[in-house]
Amino acid sequence: MRGIVIANTLHGFVLIALFIGVIIAGFNKEKILLISMLLMFLGGILNFIAQMANGGKMPVFGNRMTEGGYVLELFDAHKDGDENTKLPLLCDGIEITFWRISATISMGDIVACLGLLLFFCWIGQKIYYLMYKI
Fold first, then answer.
1. Which residue has the higher pLDDT, 71 or 61?
2. Which among 54, 57, 23 is positioned nearest to 37, based on CA atoms?
3. Which of 57, 75, 88, 113 shows a CA-CA span of 20 to 30 A to 130?
4. In this predicted structure, what is the pLDDT of residue 111?
5. How far is the C-alpha of 90 from the C-alpha of 107, rounded, in Å?
6. What is the pTM of this model?
7. Is 50 exceeded by the pLDDT of residue 2?
8. How many other CB atoms are there within 10 angstroms of residue 76's CB atom?
9. In angstroms, rounded to a whole number, what is the distance separating the alpha carbons of residues 41 and 18?
10. Radius of gyration (Cα) for the chain, nearest Å?
11. What is the mean pLDDT of residues 43-70?
């Protein structure tokens, strides 16, 4: 269940960062901010394409679906990936483990995370500037 919570939290962070970024980008046109928003948007589009090509559900490859099927029971947004899956490169198939938490992510998640990382770097740069350049 931890992997699902992380995925939903990640998507929430991406949406919040996109919302804040769109508001800020209206006032100042910084390239790193625009690139981060573009990457987050592109990651969301890649996930959307994978879901729409497979009947509105994201196929999950690997053993995450067979360990208990909790994805299907909780959110009904994922399904088990098989040989009939369309666009398997865009589906959840990259298994990662960080500390004791494991998750299965997609190419769209990776692209969105890169955008989120750039967004946080931009925020850190602004905080540093405010603290030490006053």
1. 61
2. 23
3. 113
4. 94
5. 6
6. 0.75
7. no
8. 10
9. 8
10. 17
11. 77
pLDDT at 54 over 60: yes
Which string of DSSP letters, residue by residue, matches the chain? -HHHHHHHHHHHHHHHHHHHHHHHHTT---HHHHHHHHHHHHHHHHHHHHHHHTTTSEEE-SSTTTTT-HHHHHTS-EEE--TT-SSGGGSB-EEEEETTEEEEE-HHHHHHHHHHHHHHHHHHHHHHHHHH--
**What is the C-alpha separation between 69 and 123, in angstroms, rounded?**
38
Pairing of strands 78-80, 58-60: parallel
Q: Tell the burial category of 41 from Cβ atoms under 10 Å away from its Cβ (0-12, 13-18, 19+).
A: middle
Burial of 49: CB neighbours in 10 Å, binned 0-12, 13-18, 19+: middle
Contacts of 42 (CB under 8 A, 6+ apart): 108, 111, 112, 115
Residues in the chain: 134
Residue 73 pLDDT class (50, 70, 90 cuts): very low
